[in-house]
Each structure stands twice: as structure tokens, then as C-alpha cells.
Amino acid sequence: MAVISLPPGFQIEPVPFLGEVTAPEPRSRLGVLENFNGSFTGSGFNTIFRPHSGTNTTFPRDNILELNLIDDAITFSKDFGAVPNRGLMSQSNIFLNGISYVQAVSAVTNEETGKADHSPIGIHFETGLWMNVPPTNNTPVLGESLVRMGSIPHGTTINAQCLAPTSNTSGPPEIPPASLAVFPLKGDGGAVPIDSVNASVISSLRRPQDLSKFIAAGTITQEILDDPNTVLRNAIKGQTILQNIAFTVSTGPLVPVFGGGTANIAFLEGDPAIMNPNANTSQMNATFWIETVQHKLQVPIFKRGQAPMKISPASPAHQPVPVFLISPPHDITVPKTITVTSIQIQYSQVVNLVFDGLIWPHISVSTLIPSDPVTVPDSVWN
Fold this sequence. Notes:
Layout: E1 38-51, E2 63-76, E3 82-85, E4 94-107, E5 121-133, E6 136-137, E7 141-142, E8 145-152, E9 156-163, E10 169-170, E11 183-184, E12 206-207, H1 212-217, H2 222-226, H3 230-235, E13 240-250, E14 261-264, H4 266-269, E15 280-299, E16 309-311, E17 324-326, E18 336-355, E19 358-370, E20 374-375
InterPro entries: Heme_bind_FMP (IPR047975)
């Protein structure tokens, strides 16, 4: 994916007017967003119940469950400066800091092999911003928060928020389950039975219909359909994760956070007079885990001054691993093992789509590693 390029010298800052004396330029504060640096690529799983048009398409034939093994790529820009938001009366001004991002997701689901080795087919593109909002003690009274603002080509925009995380957790993350259960939009009824989430049923409206090759390959199983976050847990089996930071942004955030939301084009909202949307996005929740992963690298003999080496660690779960750029500050006369770390991003996103009087979960999960070689610091060799 191409690098996001801002115009040379571009930096957002306050514009003085009418002889106003500006305060010193505020220190950049991205907080946890500092980990969203550069480009990341990876793989995952994507599910969506999409509307089914045509004749005889009343429930349960009003939908098709599409299951996608995916390749995922996200590129983040550098911090673009301090964005001034002006307070009213007793509320002082604040300065937001942020980064822009571009995400592209491709389906690589191969029905012939049951694996993620099909020629990529683009299924999702998103541009947006991640912003860090400093705390305010007046209007509103709110701690430091994070905001994700995104635009999706289908015709939906999101503004999702949460309080910024304040600490790390040692070890790997505890990833809760996700569910493909479908619920009525109104009333207190339980989940609506859907045949397509049963992996053994091959006559339902589902793509792929026959999952036998995927079950054999372990890529789409009943366990994964029961809990798509299984894909995330499988991806980190055998990894040494030193710590993780977790946060969940939502378009309907929990108290004390408020604001945000979703907006949809007319086609998605359908006929508002009879509340009959084609596929209206009502809410989005996305949990991100930023993980510090430890690796062991086998470094061969090296003579100072030779070209840097690119070395990758072993992959315990047969997942992609980062490449490390190694240039020791001194000669390596015998092969040695060094310990290094890298940042890994995992996310689980649930978008609620509304059509035919039901709420349909659209779930995306992914594990991402740095796309570019990670430079090994000199301190490793001390």
C-alpha cells in the first residue's frame, strides 16, 4: 500500500487574528496512538450478512452470509500537528493531535483449496483519522479520549470514541468472544435461528456454501462461526507477548463518554417513512489490542561495515512474522542469538446492519504486523 504523504511542511496549528497573542505551540500528544506508526499488513476473517434481493426473498431468504478469509493492510501518516478546538466562555481551548489512515481489505477465500490463497479481490476500503482528545474539566467534564473518524465507500461514515487507556496489561490479551447471533430490532425476543451459521449445512444462502474443505484446512470451522474471535486467539498461539494495551471505540460509547455516531446515504437508509432500510449501519464497536511481541533472532557472522542484514524469527503459529533490519555496531565473530521486540495490532470490529426488522452483525477480525523492516536498536548488542 502507498505511503500517506502530507504536503511538504504541512502542520496544523492555531491561526492568530486581530492582534491575538498565541500561546506557545502545544506539545504533540498522541498517547497510545504513537503505536500506529507506518504500515501494517496481515490476515484475518470477515463475515457479513448482506441483503438478498429478488423474488421470494422474505425471511429466512432475505440474506446471504458471506464469509471471507482476508488480507489486510493499514497505513498511518505521521502526526499532522495540533488541531485547535475553541472553548466557549469558561471552557479553555484544547488541542487535538492525530494521524490519518488508509485501510484496504481483500478477500483471498479459495473454494478449491479451503485456504487463503485466492487472487486478492478488494472488498473494503476506508480512509479516516485517529485523534487524541485531551481531558477537559468544564464543558464537558471528560478524561483524555480517543476518536476514530472513518469513511466507507458503501456510503457510511463513523465517529467512534472511548476513554484513552491508562495502563498496559502484562502478557497476552484476554480476547472475549464475538457472536454472529441475529436479533430482532424491536422487542425482547432472543436470537433468531439462522441456518447459514451451521458449518455442516450446505443448502443455506451462504458463500461459500460447502465449507468441507475449509473445515479440513482449519480456516473456517464451526468453532470459528460460533466465535470469530477464535481467529485472533489462534494467531497468537505460541507467541511471547510481553504486554498489551486494549481499548474499544464505539459510535454509541458508554458513559461517561458521549457523542459520535454513524451516518448513512439515502440508499442504505431506504424508505424512512416505513422504516425499511436496505442495510443501515446503526452502530460500530471496535476493540484494538496493541501488543509488544518478543522474538529470538539467529544472527550469523557479521563484519562491521557490510550491508545491513534482514532476518525474520521463526513463526510458531505459521503466521507472517516481521522482518528485522540488523546492523551490529561491531563484528560478530560467531553466530549468536539476540532478543528483539515488535508491535503487533489485533482488532475485532462489529458493525450492526439493520434490514428486514433484524440486527445483523458484520464482524471483521485481523492480526497485523509491520510491513517495513523493523530496525534493531544498538542497545540490543550491549
